[in-house]
Specification:
Distance between the termini: 39 Å
Shape: globular
Strand order of the largest sheet: 1-2-3-4-5-6
Number of helices: 9
Order of helices and strands: HHHHEHHEEHEHEEH
Length: about 290
Amino acid sequence: MPTVKESCREIYNSTYNAEKERLYQGALSPSHRGPVDEKKESKIETEAQKEAIKRTMVETMRAFPNEETSNIWRAVYEVHVHRKSGVGDADTIARVVSADQSWKKSSGHAFEEMIKFLGNAALCGTNIEIVLQKDLNMLIKARKIANEPRDISWLKEQIKASVFDLYVVLSKDDGKKHCFGCIQSKTSIRDRVTRDREPSMQAMASYFWSTIIVLDGDYLKLPKFVSMVNGGTTEHPTNGWHGMYVFSEQYSDGRIYATDLDFKNFKDHAVQAAHYWSTQRQWFDHNWIISE
């Protein structure tokens, strides 16, 4: 059986090459005018990288269910850097730096799309869906979000500031879509948790469901970060999110929930949140918590 690193290398490289070829052929289709310029080439590479990172994570997590996700993420990172940097010449260091910057640019967006993919697979049949920030912006511009004007104004402010990465939308029986939830997706938020916590508290104060999904929960070994989520301390008397979802069972604590590829608990919580938001929104502040 291949190792985690070997599995990541095989899936990443095959996915990257296939996706890059597919996108390149699309750019050369009859409907495309002009040659594939440098800007288009760069965009093709970025999109192929995102798809490779996303697919490698999902497939390797399925193949190695007992492996810590942070170790798998590190293995994907190493494969990505190796492909991007190469070895054996005077430019190696500069190329590694460039590869690391490329990783940071692609991996965050790939993780967002991974959350959207897994979340929507779990939410199928519930009339609830996860949309990217850019998707919500398009829906608002097309007047397809039926929230009241005050909500729309608030959501536009969040989009402009890029505060949240994804949003949760409910399609009601009358066919109208309502945005009721905000999601922050972070591979690790240790260095940014304070900055991320404040807008979440503002979302809850505006009666939106506010959650955060985290790949690497290692920082939750420190009590201060747990209290930022759950509250209950002098420094952090109230909770910072309605719930945090982490890809590891070892961090479950209060509003911190272990999740996996099935996103079952996130689905169950989303259904509860949607119902409460639709029926008792005036009470949907930071105190709301899911019923087990």
